[in-house]
Design brief:
There is one protein chain. Helices cover about 30% and strands about 25% of the residues. The strands form 3 sheets. It has a 7-stranded mixed beta sheet. The protein has a two-stranded antiparallel sheet with strand order 6-7. The chain has one domain: 3-Layer(aba) Sandwich (Rossmann fold), CATH 3.40.50.150. It has about 250 residues and is an alpha/beta fold.
Length: about 250
């Protein structure tokens, strides 16, 4: 089974557990860390695409301030729920081969989905393709140190006195790992931050915003804010240059 098939089967099997975990509001990382700063940076968009939209939660949030919102996801069970809950158009498809015209959107969002995409280069290339000139790509992702800590005993080690520390390994090596928690079993991909930065720069985008957002409120905030688990990036596709007179 290749990475794409494994990802599809993992999400198909895990869709019920995911819906139970997210509920209608989402988990701690979304509700107390990412939602507010991500939503703030969607303002001003008119046509937004959420790649890997799942059950459509962030699409519904964007729809309150963005006139046209589309969600894309390959997992039919999640799309069925998204369509039931409404507020946006939902399309079945994959990030690596999107069924949209060039320049169809002025905002593309990848909200914690890049670790799920086997061929991230193809996925990012497609995100850039469907952006109009001057459009923005808004990314939320797990920190590389965190995904590189999933290779041994779920990343955790304990000393003789029982004190826990996290083991980071194979950071510079792009590799897959299986994330299993609360009834879910999903194949994820680790890539170092430099891979993402160099890929996005190589695709011709300009970095306009970077952040490692802290948790705001919630019972887990004090523990969470000891280290950045998540990052945000906003990239802009350069506007088309006007042709010079005479060619």
């Amino acid at each position: 089974m290749n990475g794409r098939d494994d990802m599809d089967e993992g999400w198909n099997r895990s869709a019920g557990a995911w819906l139970a975990l997210m509920g209608r509001d989402g988990d701690f990382s979304r509700t107390h860390v990412l939602d507010a700063p991500m939503l703030a940076r969607t303002r001003g968009a008119t046509r937004a695409l959420d790649v890997g939209c799942g059950e459509g939660r962030f699409c519904r949030m964007m729809a309150a301030q963005v006139p046209e919102v589309t969600g894309l996801d390959p997992t039919r069970a999640l799309l069925d729920v998204a369509r039931e809950r409404g507020a946006a158009e939902f399309v079945e498809g994959r990030a690596e081969d999107m069924p949209f015209d060039d320049g169809a959107f002025d905002l593309v969002v990848s909200y914690l989905t890049l670790i799920d995409i086997p061929d991230a280069w193809a996925g990012l290339s497609e995100m850039v393709r469907v952006l109009c000139p001057g459009g923005r790509l808004l990314i939320a992702n797990l920190q590389g140190w965190l995904t590189a800590a999933q290779t041994k005993a779920d990343g955790w080690s304990r000393d003789d006195e029982g004190a826990a520390s996290m083991v980071v390994d194979r950071y510079f090596e792009e590799h897959a790992f299986r994330g299993a928690w609360k009834g879910m079993s999903i194949l994820n991909w680790h890539r170092p931050l430099a891979w993402y930065m160099q890929t996005l720069l190589g695709l011709g985008l300009e970095l306009v915003h970077f952040d490692e957002p802290k948790a705001e409120g919630g019972a887990e905030a004090e523990r969470y804010n000891r280290a950045p688990y998540l990052l945000m990036m906003e990239w802009r596709k350069p506007a088309a240059r006007a042709a010079r007179p005479g060619g």
